[in-house]
Amino acid sequence: MANKSGLTDAAVAKLLLVALSFCWGLSWSAMRIALDELSPWSMRLLGYSIGAATMFVLIKAQGRPLAIPGGRNALHVFVAALFIVVAFGIAGTFAQLLAQTSRVIIVNYSMPVWGSLMAYFVLRERVDRRSAIGLALCIAGLGVLVAPVFEESLAEPIGLLLALVCALGWAGGTVYMKWARIQGDLLAITFWQIMVGVAAFAIGYLAFEGLPKFEALQWRTWGGVLFNGILGTGIAYFIWFNIIGRLSTAMASLGTLMNPVVGVIGAAILLGDRPTIPDIVGFALIFGAAACVLLPRRQSPSKAPAA
Predict the structure, then answer these.
(1) How many domains does one find in the chain?
(2) pLDDT for 91-130, tens place per residue?
(3) Is residue 115 included in any domain, yes or no?
(4) DSSP secondary structure of 233-265
(5) pLDDT-derived band of residue 152, with 50, 70 and 90 as boundaries?
(6) Does residue 221 sit in helix, strand or coil?
(7) Backbone angles phi, psi at 8, to 5 degrees
(8) Is 4 a member of any domain?
(9) Which domain holds residue 217?
């Protein structure tokens, strides 16, 4: 069905996917720029707080419910947030201090592969041949990425290990949410998960840095924090849930393959990252692994009924 602008829902969703790829893909570079002046705890606390405020405004503007029905659902939201927001946020932020942002992005986007593997053990979802090929490509890609950097320093492999923890956290939280079957508005559930992240990073900030110290920040630092909070968190999730309401889950998931491409190109332009040959090979292998999992499966044609 076409809207007032003459575009169909599918066309609007594809335009939104392009916007989402820039919001999520470039948020990694924005985060790294902010980390030049801010600590991981303060950067994440500011970013998540701004993101939560953005989501709150968007949810209220649409008249969507914020409440999570029942104590059981609230508990599941909290547990899922520990994986998707807290573990993802901590590991992803510290990873960028130890490894090149482009490499962190590449490893992080192996998450669909780990999600399919976890779903096999937790949800008893079948691992077909394509998923098995995806897992093999992912392991090969990680090997190609990690092996050369052991010769550079110990920090880089540790950073890539944290990026892997980041991917595992997101995958684990997603599988947990499927298992728990949390009830409620998806955007509201995400809002409360972000709020758990705000609380976790506030505790971390107070524990490791003490009471807040208000200091003037460079404009580029504020730009990185605001991009990460408003676009990379609040608006990005709002766009994502609008997309999945217009496209099939398979098509929407396939569209997210643009995120690491935009992210790696953005890191090269904004941060000066220069991928090596192993980086490019590793990216190709992990991208192929994610595609194996996310590409929609061809449906076998149904047989015509006997006359």
Answers:
(1) 1
(2) 999 999 999 999 999 999 888 889 888 888 888 888 778 8
(3) yes
(4) IIIHHHHHHHHTTTS-HHHHHHHTTHHHHHHHH
(5) low
(6) helix
(7) -75, 165
(8) no
(9) 9-294
What tens digit of pLDDT does each residue of 253-273 get? 666 788 899 999 999 999 999
The mean predicted confidence, pLDDT, of the chain is 87
User: What are the beta bridge partners of residue 8?
Assistant: 2
Identify whether 17 is part of a domain.
yes
Query: Does 148 map to a domain?
Result: yes
CB 133 within 8 A of CB 292: yes
What is the CB neighbour count within 10 angstroms for residue 3? 10
> 161: exposed, middle or buried (C-beta count within 10 Å: 0-12, 13-18, 19+)?
middle
- Reported as a pLDDT band with limits 50, 70 and 90, residue 71 is confident
Structure tokens at 14: 């594809």
Tokens coding 58? 């968007």
Q: How many CB atoms lie within 10 A of CB 261?
A: 15
DSSP-based three-state secondary structure for 66? coil
Q: Give the separation between CA 143 and CA 82, rounded to whole angstroms.
A: 28
Please check whether residue 9 is in contact with residue 3, taking contact to mean a CB–CB distance below 8 angstroms.
yes
Q: What is the pLDDT of residues 129-139, one digit of tens each?
A: 888 888 899 99
